């Protein structure tokens, strides 16, 4: 048995058992934890050797102090053998293709904010799953506490995909060592079972090792060795090496003088050992400490200036002394403690000089920019343009790969170099601001603001502002986006406090002692580009009006979202008359037309005129929301389909989640609830796991709506609870919020009173909030109008979510809670000055809440208000919804003609959800008017519509009403297309189109085993035996 594996039978048995589970198809994360020198690496090596012998594919990697700044360093090590094999071109395809972004040296293209990281991680996950599908696979990562952030994030994500796969992650982590990325490491370790903790060697094991080295040692000496090293295998070996080198005899006198032997003693012992070796040996050892694990001998030779024969001889001496070992990649010092002793033994200034020489050498070897930058990070700032340029290039490469944290590190060090011209400094600050915005860090705005202030060229100022405003908006920092725009536009409305300052303008990075020799020679001026896409290169003239126009349009996108800035958005939009302005302003005029409840024909004319324009960023989202309100549901779905089809194969998960949430928003009113649920759930779950946090609320409202209509009321409540646990929930009973007074002649009610209070006053007929709890909710939360976690009254997302939760409460027969939500929603819509009855539809639902609470007169007044607005707009959906609400306030006989008219309005409308509701209410009214036979036709039609689209809440009620009317509804579908779950439906459609199981798995981001399971159920439900039969068994899509 190898010496360092003495007394390790129990630990090896545990590892063998867990690796056996991996081989049998149970994915697992296995952790070996312990202090430095306890034998973790030896255990991992033994386990890896055993796993390979048992038929597992073993992919090794290791972390290190230098490598933790190398984006995707661990991932690149793991897959390096595969990239050089014949398998690579068949592995990195389909859903795994985006892995090339992280692993390949060239070819990473620009992706939307945040999606380079997501694409790389997504591709690596599917690459790993594909490997495991071919053969049981083990990822073996030593010293994972030093792993780089992108690789750790990916490994944490991978743990959620390992179930049912013969895939294992075996890693070693040093206890007592502060990890480089504690949160990411904690996520990975949380997926593991109980760690394997190697125990210190006992007295007998130490005695055996000592006697093997020093046969004359007595009991007192072996006990002293055990006490001095606490049974740590590496320290014991180092102690014995030291004693042998010093020619110390194992006497009792020596034993009495042995004291604690730890890392400090190891460092002194290494120094003494090197002092006895030939000249140049110590420098060669230090070169390997500076270069890191796996460095080739030629690099250490060149770094020390040795000739090749002498370097070979000195490397042999280091190996003989037990300080150096040969690896597959090159050479490595035998233990991190030895490497740390040699590295930390260098004074800070000298260390910086060593790294500077290493950087110059690597440039000569044409090493990758990031490899060079790892050493530049550890040099002393000296005002060298070449260093700034090299770090800037490395940052771009890291950013393209999807390693924004590493890109930011390089940029910070570039800024610290000093002696940078204003144009280049503004460029660096802008890049740093953009990359920190991508990570949703609040210091992004101060950095971008400083970049604008620093820029002396009007073109650059405008380009920085435009790129920064878009990045801040996508990160959810809408107030900061507004502030940035106002820096070069005229002053806008007062806003709240800015994000916290970022601190030092040029933070010092690297050693404190001076090391001012030029590190990298300058190859030319620093690039004027802003970010990887050269965003500053656009404008051709000072203060280009087109760019300023775009900046203002971006400002308005964020300004629409909050009541404190809505008036500014309105005023700016009106200053750009339509038609005549650019298509960007057409989008805003379309939103304004919706907000003001103008006739549908006017809104449609505006929106149709901009559909073919190149609209992106938040403008595209504003456009899609306006189109949904205008009942152009098929157009929105087609736009979202196009976006999803474009970004899915690229692994752009943020864009995919965004497209999915918007598509769900359009699918629900179209009555396609079965399709909306998976879209909304995917978007919500993605935002749960990825920033920005405000994005969670935008994905929450369509999910709550879809689950409510799918009759999954507990699921909708669970989604709300999850958001609340993340700090983005609504209070249980929102109370009154302040609102702007209604404008004369706008149709916005300023005095209509459900019960005895105004909408938005929070008062019911009893003079209390709808919950019966005066002073509850936001008004009592410590910050008036602010929900826990940051939701504010007067925000568009707040109004949308309140209405959806109110519908859930109505479905749960909780009308008082629904009324309270709707009162708060009304105040939000009024504060935003949004009157469109299709977007601000609170009156319809509140009619039903008030009727259930015993206040039909107040319900009728709201229904009439809604109908007045709906008549002005002229869309079928709001008009039919208003008629349905009014029907709730009259007798069944009076309701029948109202609902008949509503059903006629919707007969050719895309608003199938409302159509199914109206038909159900019509059938119920006919039944209550003693027209049972007549009631069956609309109820049967409602049931068919509802079951076809997965509108189970409506289907349940329609079925009950049909039974009460004497009808015989067919049983709940258990076979046929209607019985397919949303996930089965998607698999069935793709299979019918001829996609293979692997292609389906790639598109839906599931495993092939999951696809096979779905197909088994699909074949059973559709009563087919061949894939070719699917196309004729599914309804037209």
From TrEMBL:
Report the protein name in the record: HTH luxR-type domain-containing protein
Which InterPro entries does the annotation name? Answer: AAA_16 (IPR041664), P-loop_NTPase (IPR027417), Sig_transdc_resp-reg_C-effctor (IPR016032), Tscrpt_reg_LuxR_C (IPR000792), WH-like_DNA-bd_sf (IPR036388)
| Species of provenance | Actinoplanes cyaneus
- Matches recorded under SUPFAM superfamilies: C-terminal effector domain of the bipartite response regulators, P-loop containing nucleoside triphosphate hydrolases
Where is region (Disordered) located?
A: 731-784
Molecular functions per Gene Ontology: adenylate cyclase activity; ATP binding; DNA binding
Q: Where is the HTH luxR-type domain?
A: 973-1037
Q: Where are its TM segments located? A: none
């Amino acid at each position: 048995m190898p010496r360092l594996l003495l007394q390790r039978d129990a630990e090896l048995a545990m590892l063998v058992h867990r690796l056996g589970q991996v081989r049998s198809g149970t994915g697992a994360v296995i952790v070996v934890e312990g202090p430095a020198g306890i034998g973790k690496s030896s255990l991992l090596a033994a386990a890896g050797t055993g796993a390979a012998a048992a038929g597992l594919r073993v992919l090794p990697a290791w972390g290190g102090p230098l490598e933790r700044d190398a984006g995707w360093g661990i991932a690149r090590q793991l897959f390096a053998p595969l990239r050089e094999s014949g398998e690579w071109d068949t592995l990195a395809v389909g859903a795994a293709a985006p892995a090339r972004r992280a692993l390949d040296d060239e070819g990473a293209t620009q992706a939307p904010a945040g999606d380079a990281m997501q694409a790389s991680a997504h591709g690596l996950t599917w690459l790993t799953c594909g490997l495991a599908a071919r053969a049981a696979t083990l990822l073996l990562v030593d010293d994972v506490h030093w792993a780089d952030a992108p690789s750790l994030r990916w490994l944490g994500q991978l743990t959620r995909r390992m179930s049912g796969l013969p895939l294992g992650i075996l890693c070693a982590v040093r206890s007592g060592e502060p990890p480089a990325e504690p949160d990411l490491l904690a996520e990975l370790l949380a997926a593991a079972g109980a760690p394997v903790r190697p125990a210190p060697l006992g007295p007998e094991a130490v005695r055996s090792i000592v006697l093997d080295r020093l046969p004359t040692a007595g009991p007192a000496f072996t006990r002293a060795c055990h006490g001095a090293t606490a049974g740590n295998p590496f320290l014991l070996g180092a102690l014995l090496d030291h004693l042998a080198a010093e020619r110390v005899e194992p006497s009792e006198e020596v034993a009495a003088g042995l004291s604690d032997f730890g890392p400090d003693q190891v460092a002194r012992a290494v120094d003494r050992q090197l002092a006895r070796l030939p000249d140049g040996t110590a420098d060669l050892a230090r070169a390997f400490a500076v270069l890191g694990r796996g460095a080739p001998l030629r690099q250490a030779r060149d770094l020390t200036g040795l000739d090749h024969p002498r370097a070979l001889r000195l490397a042999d001496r280091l190996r003989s002394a037990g300080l150096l070992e040969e690896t597959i990649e090159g050479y490595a010092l035998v233990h991190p403690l030895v490497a740390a002793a040699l590295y930390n033994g260098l004074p800070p200034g000298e260390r910086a000089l060593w790294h500077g020489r290493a950087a110059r050498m690597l440039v000569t070897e044409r090493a990758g920019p990031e490899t060079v930058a790892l050493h530049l990070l550890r040099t002393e700032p000296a005002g060298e343009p070449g260093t700034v340029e090299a770090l800037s290039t490395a940052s771009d490469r890291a950013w393209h790969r999807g390693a924004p944290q590493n890109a930011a590190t390089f940029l910070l060090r570039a800024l610290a170099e000093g002696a940078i011209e204003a144009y280049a400094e503004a460029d660096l600050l802008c890049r740093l601001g953009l990359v920190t915005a991508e990570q949703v860090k609040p210091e992004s705005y101060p950095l971008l603001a400083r970049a604008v202030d620093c820029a002396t060229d009007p073109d650059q100022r405008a380009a920085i502002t435009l790129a920064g405003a878009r990045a801040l908006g996508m990160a959810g920092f809408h107030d900061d986006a507004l502030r940035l725009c106002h820096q070069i536009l005229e002053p806008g409305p007062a806003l709240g406090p800015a994000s916290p300052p970022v601190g030092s303008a040029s933070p010092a990075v690297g050693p404190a002692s001076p090391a001012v020799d030029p590190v990298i020679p300058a190859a030319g001026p620093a690039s004027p580009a802003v970010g990887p896409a050269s965003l500053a290169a656009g404008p051709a003239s000072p203060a280009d009006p087109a760019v300023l126009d775009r900046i203002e349009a971006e400002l308005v996108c964020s300004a629409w979202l909050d009541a404190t800035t809505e008036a500014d958005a309105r005023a700016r939009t009106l200053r750009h008359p339509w038609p005549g302005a650019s298509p960007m302003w057409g989008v805003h005029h379309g939103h304004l037309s919706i907000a003001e409840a103008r006739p549908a024909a006017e809104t449609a004319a505006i929106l149709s005129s901009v559909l073919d324009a190149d609209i992106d960023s938040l403008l595209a989202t504003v456009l899609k929301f306006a189109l949904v309100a205008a009942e152009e549901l098929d157009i929105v779905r087609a736009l979202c389909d196009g976006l999803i089809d474009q970004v899915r194969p690229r692994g752009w998960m943020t864009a995919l989640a965004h497209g999915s949430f918007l598509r769900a928003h359009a699918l629900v009113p179209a009555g396609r609830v079965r399709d909306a649920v998976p879209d909304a759930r995917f978007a919500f779950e993605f935002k749960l796991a990825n920033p920005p946090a405000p994005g969670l609320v935008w994905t929450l409202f369509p999910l709550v709506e879809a689950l409510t209509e799918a009759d999954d009321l507990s699921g909708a409540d669970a989604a709300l609870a999850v958001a609340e646990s993340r700090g983005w929930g609504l209070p249980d009973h929102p109370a009154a919020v302040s609102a702007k007074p209604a404008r004369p002649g706008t149709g916005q009610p300023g005095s209509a009173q459900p019960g005895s209070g105004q909408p938005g006053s929070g008062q019911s007929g009893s003079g209390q909030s709808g919950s019966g709890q005066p002073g509850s909710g936001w008004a009592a939360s410590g910050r008036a109008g602010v929900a826990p976690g940051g939701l504010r009254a007067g925000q568009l997302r707040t109004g949308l979510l309140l209405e959806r939760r109110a519908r859930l409460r109505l479905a749960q027969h909780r009308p008082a809670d629904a009324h309270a939500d709707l009162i708060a929603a009304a105040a939000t819509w009024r504060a935003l000055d949004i009157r469109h009855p299709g977007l601000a539809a609170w009156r319809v639902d509140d009619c039903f809440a008030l009727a259930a609470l015993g206040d039909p007169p107040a319900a009728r007044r709201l229904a009439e208000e809604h109908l007045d607005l709906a008549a002005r707009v002229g869309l079928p959906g709001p008009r039919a919804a208003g008629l349905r609400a009014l029907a709730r306030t009259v007798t069944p006989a009076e309701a029948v003609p109202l609902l008949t008219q509503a059903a006629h309005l919707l007969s050719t409308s895309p608003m199938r959800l409302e159509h199914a509701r109206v038909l159900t209410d019509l059938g119920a009214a006919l039944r209550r008017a003693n027209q049972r036979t007549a009631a069956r036709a609309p109820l049967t039609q409602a049931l068919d519509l509802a079951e076809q689209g997965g509108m189970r809440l409506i289907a349940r009620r329609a079925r009950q009403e049909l039974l009460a009317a004497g009808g015989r509804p067919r049983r709940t579908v258990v076979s046929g297309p209607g019985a397919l779950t949303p996930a089965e439906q998607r698999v069935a459609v793709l299979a019918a189109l001829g996609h293979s199981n692997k292609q389906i798995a790639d598109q839906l981001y599931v495993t092939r085993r999951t696809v096979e399971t779905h197909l088994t159920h699909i074949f059973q439900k559709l009563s087919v035996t061949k894939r070719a039969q699917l196309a004729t068994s599914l309804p037209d899509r």
